[in-house]
Amino acid sequence: MSSIDWAGLMRAGMGELHLTPAVFWRLSPIELRIMLGAEAQTPPLTRARLEELAAAFPDIGKGTSHDNSAGFAGPDCGA
Asked: Which of 13, 15, 47, 78 could tie 24 with a disulfide, CB 3.0–4.6 Å?
């Protein structure tokens, strides 16, 4: 079972959102998440989306091959 960060939730609800304690404690967890904007965040990366991105932006010719036996860093790796 995961622990809930009550102190953080209370700071967010009563501090950032300026909710009264009575209103804060009547909210459901999903209502609080929506009010804090958590539901508007980017969804997690799925395998299908990763494959779509890999097809759209291939690493070919950038020195990032998995068969990089020489151990050279690519020109865009920041090394």
From this structure: 13
